[in-house]
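Continuing the series of single-chain predictions for the mutant panel. This is the parent chain; the variants come on the following pages.
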Amino acid sequence: MAPRIAFRKVTPDGLSVDVEQYENLRLLLLTKELPGKRTQAVQVIGVAVQELNSPTITWYYEYEPLPQDIPLAKVNRWLQTQGYLVGVFDQFGNFQEKAA
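Parent structure:
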């Protein structure tokens, strides 16, 4: 079984899980609107395999890591052209932009 991430469409602190089509992959992204910025903060989680609905307000995505033959730098550049600010979130939802 693939790993799962539980999510709500938007958490109380503004984090959301989105899927963005990149080449032949469905990228699973953790995103958040940043105050005072026109871009969305984004962290690549992996490749979405399947969305699982549940009877509660929590849903799940099964996902896999990015394939080894896909350079993360290329994915990050593509996300930037889509209007995202690439980085990582800590366990409190704080965002740290990746150094270019």
